[in-house]
Write a structure and sequence with these properties.
This protein is mainly alpha-helical. The chain is about 60% helix and about 5% strand. Strands 4-3-5-6-7-8 form a 6-stranded mixed beta sheet. The longest helix has about 35 residues.
Length: about 575
């Protein structure tokens, strides 16, 4: 019972809850609900399912997250990126808007929830770190363009067969431009202009909902649906029924790539949004593994009530924050508003033009185009800019899954390459100080003939042992006079594996055969423990370990004055972790 509030953070919220806090949550939750209704309908269509399923995704998931979530501002529900991922993956297995497609989308939500809960149980939130920021930026920017292009049919009112590639849609538009429906296109443009004007007037004003209502009224009043303007049509009234999602084993296997992609991308986005508001407000703590649990259970239970997959939305979370949301009770208020809409207002959705929904989607995803991030990477780190561009192009022209996969693989290739050839510095004493720095940065400093100091700025592991050995040999061969001592500064060497240890033995043997004494300086605790367990400490000799380079250099001039029996540089622990 004492640990119950850790599992249900809302219990801690209720201990200090007051009417003043509820008033703030009520305003925020209502505002988010007003914004969420048109977005949920629009993103459902983007996902390839009827609009009602977008609203269903705003019930059980919101309620469960309110009970289990640790972010007071995060607003979950249908989002554009998740929608396009689902559409891209499942459209390979079924026709969008068909009963089979809808069933597979709901079943996918169940699988995503199960994976997220398992990740939470096994504390695997760290796996989201496998996708770097350049990969995410490249993928999301490409996804935004794909989403915008996917709305051409609804925005122009043009009949169009199903295409797998975005460029095919653009080509079809160019070849059949004369077939566009003028009324549909005018509604699309007018909706964009009005939403932008409302946003410029007041950012928190529910411009999208107002434009949706105006569009529906105009369609009803002037009979625009009889003039070729596509509308939503009948939306079922009432709350979702209970279902048990099911699919055969082969279908499950076919869905796994989509499940894992949406799981990682969805959680990275949600936790990123939650952390950003945690840092901004500093009034709560976001726990990553608890967030995984909350998002996972919300999807699992939501799937039994016809909810399509949902994730955290930055725009709605920002509105939640701007309107003063203090707790997750605001999400419960939003859910109540959605329930009221499903019970009493679905008949008003009939005349909503799809072109207006397309305008809402287009404006929602424009902010996902990360031009600023690309410019920054080009200035700061060109290899990461290259990763972002390649991910962007592969996502745009091949597929979303392939784009992410290539981006992740490219990130690891670059990481492994630079880990296999890490930075190595030959250190020299800066005149008049006790500091030892890179000779290439301080060429005015002179090298000592008696010793050579190298600093290896990475762990010593199987991927860079050859480079380690060759670098040492090359540095010694460059010397006109063979030094008597080789000082290896291990300050930045945070780990050694068995291959690295074997190489260290070989290097010591090579130095000994050339009458050069190896000295080790600045080895950190875990490395000292490893060297002690391996027996290398005893083989090298206790007198040859030092806490600082200064002490090692002093030893080269006074080898008889070194009190080896009192060295703190030899301190080590015998306790080990199960994986150490």
């Amino acid at each position: 019972m004492k640990r119950l509030p850790q599992f249900f953070p809302i219990l801690n919220t209720l201990k200090t809850y007051s009417f003043g806090i509820f008033k703030a949550d009520l305003i925020a939750g209502t505002t988010v609900g007003v914004v969420l209704i048109p977005q949920a309908i629009a993103y459902a269509l983007l996902m390839g399912v009827p609009p009602i399923y977008g609203l269903y995704a705003c019930l059980i998931p919101l309620i469960i997250y309110a009970l289990l979530g640790t972010s007071t501002q995060l607003s979950i529900g249908p989002v554009a990126v998740t929608a396009i991922l689902i559409m891209s993956g499942i459209s390979q297995l079924a026709i969008p808007f068909s009963d089979t497609f809808v069933h597979l989308v709901i079943y996918t939500g169940l699988l995503i929830g199960i994976v997220q809960v398992l990740m939470s149980i096994f504390k695997m939130g760290f796996l989201t770190n496998l996708i770097s920021q350049p990969v995410i930026s490249g993928f999301i920017s490409a996804a935004a363009i794909i989403i915008i292009i996917s709305q051409i049919k609804a925005a122009f009112g043009i009949s169009m067969p199903r295409y797998d590639q975005s460029y095919e849609i653009l080509m079809h538009l160019a070849q059949n431009f004369s077939e566009i429906n003028v009324y549909t296109f005018l509604l699309f443009v007018t909706a964009i202009i009005l939403i932008l004007l409302f946003k410029r007037w007041k950012k928190t004003f529910p411009g999208a909902l107002i434009v949706l209502i105006l569009g529906a009224l105009a369609t009803y009043q002037f009979g625009l649906n009889d003039l070729g303007v596509a509308i939503i049509g009948e939306v079922p009234k009432g709350l979702p029924s209970f279902v048990i999602p099911y699919a055969d084993y082969q279908t499950l296997l076919n869905l796994l790539p989509t499940v894992f992609t949406v799981t990682l991308i969805g959680f990275i986005g949600s936790i990123g949004i939650a952390k950003s508001f945690e840092m901004k407000n500093r009034d709560h703590t976001v726990r990553a593994n608890q967030e995984l649990l909350a998002l996972g259970i919300s999807k699992i239970l939501g799937a039994f009530f016809l909810a399509v997959p949902s994730s955290g939305s930055y725009s709605r979370s920002a509105i939640n924050d701007q309107q003063g949301a203090k707790t997750t009770i605001a999400s419960l208020v939003t859910a109540v508003l959605i329930i009221a809409s499903l019970l009493f207002f679905t008949k008003f959705f009939y005349y909503i033009p799809k072109s207006v929904l397309a305008a809402i989607i287009v404006l929602s995803v424009l902010g996902l185009l990360d031009f600023k991030g690309a410019k920054m990477l080009l200035k700061l780190r060109r290899r990461e800019f290259l990763i972002m561009v390649i991910t962007f192009l592969c996502t745009l022209f091949l597929s979303i899954e392939i784009g992410i996969l290539i981006g992740v693989l490219l990130s690891f290739i670059f990481m492994l390459y630079y880990s296999s050839r890490p930075h190595v510095a030959e250190l020299v004493n800066i005149p008049g100080t006790e500091y030892y720095r890179n000779y290439e940065r301080f060429p005015e400093a002179s090298k000592a003939a008696k010793y050579l100091i190298l600093r290896f700025d990475n762990q010593l592991f199987f991927g860079n042992t050859n480079y380690f050995r060759e670098t040492i040999m090359a540095a010694l061969q460059k010397r006109e006079t063979q030094p008597e001592f080789f000082i290896l500064d291990m300050t930045n060497m945070h780990d050694i594996d068995s291959t690295g240890l074997h190489t260290l033995y070989n290097v010591n043997a090579y130095l000994s055969s050339n009458n050069v004494q190896l000295l080790i300086s600045g080895a950190i605790g875990p490395v000292r423990d490893f060297l002690k367990r391996s027996g290398f400490t005893e083989q090298l000799g206790a007198a040859h370990y030092f806490m600082t380079i200064t002490e090692a250099v002093y030893f080269t001039a006074h080898p008889d004055q070194h009190p080896s029996e009192k060295q703190i540089a030899l301190q080590h622990n015998t306790q080990r972790s199960i994986m150490d």
